[in-house]
Here is the input.
Amino acid sequence: MTASSRNQVSIEDSSTGHGVFTELIIQGLKGSAADIGGNITPASLYSFVDQSLGAWEQRPIFKTNISRFLPIRTIEAKVSKATLRKLSKYFPNPTDEYSLDPSYEFTNTPECEHKIIEPYADEYNVQKFKDLQLYESVGLIEPVGTEHMYFAAMENKSCKLTALGLHYWRLAKDKRF
Here is the structure.
């Protein structure tokens, strides 16, 4: 992997003492290039750098001759394997939607100073909702018919798997992690 092609100039950043490419490599290795499982591969590092350089004319170059990407570094996973395994339990079939109601939202209690709706927050559902919100934060699921999971719960809507979520659903279903 190189900072730019041979006919381009690599941009330097005087505030860091090294180039923009080097700074992005450092950020990527610290975790910005990690996947949901915390793995940083040469491909994910290149992808992070390439996307980050979008504002500059500089284009990094990546050449490889390998048959498999092994992690070059692993950091703490964004979602634990135990939580990822639950994905196939929340969604028994890949096209299923998970129905929500106000009992999933922890702020939906008579003690709160906003409009509350029955059924009130139920601790069992609130714990499930934390998993669902985590899945949503990393792009595995999305609310249906609204922009935020909070409104999906408060408006009795649902959530569903994204394309990435379907991939992890299959891994969970096949017990591959």
